[in-house]
Amino acid sequence: MRDAMDPPPIGREQIRQALDTLRRYKAGKANLERRIIENEEFWKLRHWDHIPQEGTTGLKTKSAWLVNVLLSKHADAMDAYPEPACLPRAADDEAEARLLSQVVPVILAQNDFPGVWSDNWWKKLKAGVAFYGVFWDRDKREGMGDISITRVDPLNLFWEPGVQELQQSRNLFHVELADNEALTERYPMLEGQLRGGGVCFSRYLYDDSVDTSQKSPVIDWYYKKREGSRTVLHYVKFVGETVLFSTENEERSKEQGISNQFPSDNATDSLLPVASSLPGHGLYDHGLYPFFADVLFPEEGTPAGFGYVDLCKDAQRQIDLMNNAIVANCVAAATPRWLKRGDDGVNEAEYADWTRPFVHVQGSIEENALRQITVAPLSGNYLNILSAKINEIKETSGNRDVNNGGVGGGVTAASAIAAMQEQSGKLSRDQIQNSYRCFRQVVGCVIALIRQFYDTPRKLRITGPGGEAEYLRFDNSMLRAGEPTELDIEVSAQKQNSYNKLSYNEMAMQFFQMGFFRPELAEQALAALEMMDFKGKEALRRRLVQNAGSALLMEAARLPAMKKQAPRLKSFDPIGRERKKNPVAERARARAAAATQPR
């Protein structure tokens, strides 16, 4: 055992080295940060600040073609909001998979994941990348602790330059500005030490005046170490050169039986996304950085990418420059201007005032004393070029008119319109599938945190098989017992738009008309259902099974009377009408039966 007076593994010298690493990471990310800030200005229609002003008029017209692209893509993403399902890899894991398929959506709902999904898709479309953070927050549930899923701003995250994946980075830093007064209240040891740490961080160009002079960066430093065959994730929270928490220091303290370096409970407040660390386990048992990147258009050598603003902002600049020129031409043509000779004697103020019936003139009036300046109208070619640029944005982004409900002239057939809409949506489907891959990583991390931290049972309200609310007490005992649970995570779209609801309603009416719900046709209906796939299929299958059981009971009850009466059996069509025998059909059936009989 080490001497209790040995310095902790993470001290001021290690923090200075970490700050040097952070500065290097920030310098490698400078171009990305400038691009993200500029793209945010395009989103807010403030892009004239990023257009060269030479040769332009004083007008600054703005069009929102690029904004419309983002609106359409975001709507597609919200229509495809993900719904997770956990699938077992072995028969022993079926019970765990079924339970987690009910519990994980509850955890997502408690973290308002639809809002996180929406915010991150805005960021993904604008900046080209969005980050999810999945942490254990020990202050949730009144100190019991629970999982937190948040959006993470790309400007606040710093990784090793040149890596393709976040998990490949040797260190990872997350930085947030916090109010100095709040920090010193929570951490009295910071009194007089809040000087910013010598690192200047980028921030957006806010509409409001944001004063950061009384704020200091709180830095979360994540790093990995190999210990035998395991990769251990360690974590340090520090401000300036003062360590607030360190997993390595915590483990050293536990080994030596020493209390935490900061005995105040403030050292483990909600700013720390950790629970008490186990010796040799680091921060989280899964050993991964708790950040996951959702990239739109990937680039080599960086976990970030580029978005639709990067793809279309040059065309948007050109559209606005041409709009500006056209508007300036219209204004010039609609505003009469005159060439005036210096000795014409015309009263300029009265001449320019169209409300005055009389204009005074000194001396005689000569015809060439005033001459109107004529403005030549722009050629129609320029309007064609403008239309071509607008179409360029639509084609480049895949945001054609058919995506928004419009179709080209001459297309009237419903099947043709449906085919065009299906084809035009393939870009959005591809990008949403990329988001689903990131979502699987998020759900996998959630399950890993459940396995590690859900020691205390907690009550959850889940959705039962029939859609009813059920209440259960849940902990990680099932996941920790025996062999580790191996699961696959399947993601499907939880679409709830009006078109889907209409199609479901029409399908239900068709099932009714075809006799799906008639007990005597339950067996045939179940056979047809096996070949179909739609939302609510499982609930319908259970209802048909119940109908089949009811039909058997009814048949058993009628059997004694049927033996006595021996009535002639009638044939019914799917909606319950008695079939009439067709002689031609009967002869065809007889020939077909004879042809299949052995001779």
Structure description:
The protein has 599 residues and is of the alpha+beta class. It has 17 helices and 16 strands. A hairpin with a 5-residue loop joins strand 14 (458-463) and strand 15 (469-474). The longest helix has 29 residues, at 537-565. It starts with 11 loop residues before the first helix and ends with a helix. Residues 259-277, 574-579 and 587-599 have low confidence and may be disordered.
Gross geometry: flat
Low-confidence segments = 259-277, 574-579, 587-599
Query: What's the assembly state of these chains?
Result: single chain
* Count of helix runs: 17
**Beta-strand fraction estimate:** 15-25%
Radius of gyration: 35 Å
* Average pLDDT score: 79
Q: How many β strands by DSSP?
A: 16
- Strands side by side in the biggest sheet: 4-5-6-7-8
The helix-and-strand class reads alpha+beta
Q: How much helicity do the residues have? A: 40-55%
**Major β-sheet profile:** 5 strands, antiparallel
What is the distance, rounded to the nearest whole angstrom, between the alpha carbons of the first and last residues? Answer: 93 Å
Observed structural traits:
599 residues; five-stranded antiparallel beta sheet; three-stranded antiparallel beta sheet; 17 helices; 16 strands; 42% helix; disordered C terminus
